[in-house]
Design a protein that fits this description.
- There is one protein chain.
- The protein is an all-alpha fold and 534 residues long.
- It contains 22 helices and no strands.
- Helix 11 packs antiparallel against helix 12 and helix 11 runs parallel beside helix 17.
- It is globular.
- The C terminus is likely disordered.
Length: 534
């Protein structure tokens, strides 16, 4: 939560300073490139392949052998990432030409994207090395620092934007410094993990041995895991490519709408999958299939319990949320409208995104990457097919109805790209569930269905309350027009807090079994880990 809140503070400052124009489009396109490589080669795939193997080493091998495995893995990763970083810097124009096909080659926006890509490629190197240490800490059930460390990126960018405001710096060159601050933030995220690694009595050293059994096992797992874990990032990457063909500002709007959706996904889906992976990996290593199924079922039910109301809130409150976060400075009301449409469409697939993370973690606990990679590849193809169809229909309608061009190239275009990602993610989750059920047996589908139905009752009560607050908002503005922004922020807080209270009340009245562990941790977070109920 702390890391994400700082991230939204960063996004608000960047939006206010750069708006949703060509410079912002170039920055977020370049950032998507380095971020994609980070997810493909670093955080997601590396954690999914490294944690199960490292967990097995800690249980079955000596400390010295585990240390040798870690050093060999670090050296191998450092060498591979260094080569990729150098190639990325050299071939940045070619990469940009493939990724941003909607940017005219030779244009100022294209040239700026190339420059920013070169400055941000080292970010991928540092953040991937940080992911290796994160895997070690997660294997020892240490999650706080790895979850907070990404705030280093936000702090680096916020400090830079603050400097720009104080120094009254303007112009295109300002966004180049923002790209440099991204790399600085990546290095900081790597560095802050090292003391925690030392506390676990492990160090980082250079040891070259490509024939090390542990490294070879990680290598066999990481290639398919790259596609399986990073499916949502690949979908977002494809969406960004397609958005370059839409109106100026569409790339930025798509990025911000995805960022807002990422808050509940990170708090509930990603967080639960990160905690569940080492737990399920340890159970799988012991051959305790029942424990794996119990952990998986509990994680999915708890995700349903928390994600469904988040989805309801994001759809109903999409516009006021975007206004409160981004509509400052150069971020216009039209940019808010386009971002709102994207947020509502992304939110529909929120449970799909979260479930994919948790279900894929169950496969990786068994060091099985075949199922997730096949499903993810097909779903990425589905997303691409829908995106291309959307662009072709948009182009045809723009010719037949020129008066619709702004709407088709803006709000509807961004919403359609976001919706295609939601659809493919839901298909991905459903398919993985079926495959896992065939692999390890019944997963408690009836309990999950019961949780879903009860949660929907709570979502209905929450939605009615939040919608009612928005209706009161209209009359309030007539009397307090001079304080519109303050009133909007206050009513948004009332809608969120009151809606959440209504949902929790209904959950309590319906005696939802997920309510008790959720509430006990919320009210007494120092009690320890949540026990999985029988």
């Amino acid at each position: 939560m702390l890391s994400r809140l700082l991230g939204y503070g960063r996004d608000t400052m960047v939006a206010a300073f750069f708006g949703a124009g060509p410079a912002a489009d170039a920055f977020y396109t370049a950032f998507r490139i380095s971020n994609l490589f980070r997810r493909l080669l670093g955080e997601g795939a590396l954690s999914a392949s490294f944690v199960p193997v490292f967990s097995e080493y800690t249980q079955k091998q000596s400390h010295e052998e585990t240390q040798r495995f870690l050093n060999t893995m670090f050296t191998t990763l450092l060498a591979i990432l260094s080569v990729i970083t150098l190639l990325g810097i050299v071939f940045a124009p070619q990469i940009t030409r493939v990724i941003a096909r909607g940017f005219e080659p030779g244009s100022e926006r294209f040239a700026l994207t190339v420059t920013l890509t070169r400055y941000m490629f080292p970010f991928m190197l540092f953040i991937s090395l940080a992911a290796l240490i994160t895997g070690v800490l997660n294997a020892f059930h240490s999650f706080f620092l790895p979850a907070l460390a990404p705030a280093c990126l936000s702090l680096a960018e916020m400090l830079y934007i603050g400097f720009l405001w104080i120094a009254h710096v303007k112009g295109q060159n300002a966004v180049v410094g923002l790209a440099i601050s991204v790399t600085v933030g990546g290095f900081s995220q790597f560095f802050v993990h090292i003391p925690a690694l030392f506390q676990r009595d492990y160090t980082l050293g250079l040891r070259w041995d490509l024939h090390h059994e542990g490294v070879k096992r990680v290598g066999r797992l990481i290639l398919p895991a790259t596609v399986g874990v990073a499916a949502d990032q690949l979908n977002a990457f494809v969406d960004t490519m397609m958005a370059t063909f839409l109106s100026v500002g569409s790339v930025t709007a798509l990025y911000y709408s995805n960022r807002v959706m990422q808050l509940p996904l990170a708090l509930f889906g990603i967080a639960l999958s990160q905690v569940a992976l080492p737990t399920m990996a340890a159970s799988a290593a012991r051959g305790a299939t029942r424990e794996v199924k119990d952990t998986l079922n509990f994680a999915l039910r708890l995700t349903l319990f928390m994600i469904l109301p988040a989805t309801t809130g994001l759809i109903i409150l999409a516009r006021p949320i975007v206004q409160a976060l981004f509509e400052y400075g150069r971020f216009s009301a039209e940019a808010t409208s386009v971002t709102t449409w994207g947020l509502a469409a992304f939110s529909i697939g929120l449970f799909g995104y979260a479930a994919v993370k948790i279900l894929a973690a169950a496969f990786y606990a068994y060091q099985d990457t075949t199922g997730p990679v096949i499903v993810a590849s097909i779903c990425i193809g589905i997303n691409c097919a829908i995106d291309v169809t959307v662009l072709l229909i948009r182009k045809k309608l723009s010719v037949l109805h020129p008066e619709w061009a702004d709407f088709l190239n803006g709000r509807l275009g961004v919403a359609a790209l976001a919706m295609s990602t939601s659809i493919s993610s839901c298909i991905n989750a459903g398919w993985l569930f079926i495959l896992l059920r065939r692999k390890i047996g019944l997963l408690g589908g009836r309990r999950m269905l019961r949780t879903t139905l009860k949660s929907l009752f709570g979502c209905a009560a929450m939605g009615l309350f939040s919608w009612g607050v928005l209706q009161l908002h209209l009359s309030a503005l007539e009397s307090f027009a001079a304080h519109v922004r303050v009133i909007r922020a206050g009513e948004l807080l009332i809608a969120i807090a009151g809606g959440a209270g209504m949902y929790m009340l209904v959950a309590k009245l319906l005696r939802m079994e997920e309510w008790e562990p959720f509430w006990s941790q919320l009210s007494s977070p120092n009690k320890g880990t949540v026990e999985v109920p029988d």
